[in-house]
Each structure stands twice: as C-alpha cells, then as structure tokens.
Amino acid sequence: MSRFVLGVALILGLALVLVRLPARSEERIQVVPAPAVDESVPAKPELETAVLAGGCFWGVQGVFEHVQGVRRVVSGYAGGSPTTASYETVSTGRTGHAESVQITYDPTQVTYGQLLQIFFSVVHDPTELNYQGPDHGTQYRSAIFVRDEAQRKVAERYIAQLDLAHVYTKPIVTRIEPLVGFYPAEKYHQDFLTLNPDYPYIAYNDIPKVESLKRLFPDVYLDKPVLALAQ
C-alpha cells in the first residue's frame, strides 16, 4: 500500500471518519515486562545507536522522538543494499530493506533494553509477520538490527523471555538481523508524525501510540519531541 498514492476522495471523504475510529494499535498495546538482561550502563555519557523496524517508519520515529534520553531519531532503510535504499524501490518489497529508524541515545538515561521494551509495548505488534496494520510486505517486517554481540545478546534473551512468559497470544516473529548499513530516508519522511498529526494515516494508526507511551511510560515520556530536521 503506497501511503503517498492516496486519492483525493480518501483524504476528503474518510479523514473525519478515520480520526474518530479507535486505532488498530490500541487493540494490542500493553506494557510488557522489562528485559531481565540489559546492556551495561557506561560510567560516563557516550551516545549509542539502535536500529529498529516495526512497520511504517512514521509512527516508529514519532514514538521514539518522545523518549527521554533519545537524542535523535532518523527514518530510513536497513537490511538491503545502498543502491536500493529509496522509498519507491523499497516499496516494491523486493530489496531486502525494512522501513527502519536509527535511534541515537544516551545509555545513562535510557538503556537499549528500555528502548526494546517500548518497541514491544507500544510501537508495533511483534506477532504480525511481514506486515503492520494496513501495511503489507517484507519492508514492514518486525526486526531488530544489531550492531554488535552485546545488542544481539540483549535482543535474543528478551524475545526468549517474552515468549516464555506468553506475553502474547501468538509467537513473536521479530527477526534479529546484523546491521550492515542504515540509509536515511528522503527528507519528506522525516518527523512526518509531528509535522502532519492530522494526516488520516497518522491520526488513525500512530497518534494513539504516542498517547500510549505517555500513559504507560510516564517516567520516560518527553513532551517536546526531539526532531531529526531540527539538527
């Protein structure tokens, strides 16, 4: 489904209806247990990065821009070649890329494990294979792109922990993949949620996720988002 090839009739005819409907994301949002294994907190601040994929990057970026300790979130592509890292090409579902976000964060304020807890709680449904809500294709898969063995260890043990606890009624299908490269998306995709809160897709699918972050994780919620385009 191409989010930019929406007809005029859809925008004008359905906008008022969609923003009043309960979002699909609200059906599954819940606080999952914190990870039993997490990264070591450094003695002094040193920024780190995490790359996560959980469906359309608009909503994923929009949620993590409201997390304390996060310094920047960039929408982009991971999992494929740099030569195919463009929206039109990735949208074919044949590039190996997933719509992803790169999160730069201060691990003394928010840990990798805490980011994953938010990822599994409010960002997306990790039991949906190669789709999220209305978006279908491998480019919308649930994936954690790990940059080293420390991240892999935390991610693998956390998924095993959640599966063992039967947090979800269906198996977690989140893939753990090595981070070969992250390629920022086109400028018009950056900060899309914040810049277009009334866009029907955003109002229906993603604004409820930000509201759930505020409600379920008040200790880490940042009222003013950290915007990629402002840096």
The major beta sheet can be summarized as:
6 strands, mixed
Radius of gyration: 17 Å
SS field, number of helical segments: 8
Beta-strand content bin: 15-25%
Question: In words, what does this structure look like?
Answer:
- With 231 residues, the chain is α+β, with helices and mostly antiparallel strands.
- The chain is built from eight helices and eight strands, in the order αβαβαβαβββαββααα.
- The chain has a single domain (44-216), classed as Peptide methionine sulphoxide reductase MsrA (Peptide Methionine Sulfoxide Reductase, Chain A, 2-Layer Sandwich), CATH 3.30.1060.
- It has helices at residues 8-18, 57-64, 87-90, 112-123, 149-164, 192-195, 200-205, 207-216, and strands spanning 48-54, 70-78, 98-105, 131-132, 135-136, 142-146, 175-178, 182-184.
- The two termini are 31 Å apart.
Summarize the structure.
The chain has 231 residues and is α+β, with helices and mostly antiparallel strands. The chain has helices at 8-18, 57-64, 87-90, 112-123, 149-164, 192-195, 200-205, 207-216; strands spanning 48-54, 70-78, 98-105, 131-132, 135-136, 142-146, 175-178, 182-184.
Write the layout of secondary structure elements.
Layout: H1 8-18, E1 48-54, H2 57-64, E2 70-78, H3 87-90, E3 98-105, H4 112-123, E4 131-132, E5 135-136, E6 142-146, H5 149-164, E7 175-178, E8 182-184, H6 192-195, H7 200-205, H8 207-216
Parallel strand pairs: 6-7
Antiparallel strand pairs: 1-3, 1-6, 2-3, 2-8, 4-5
Helix pairs in contact: 2-4
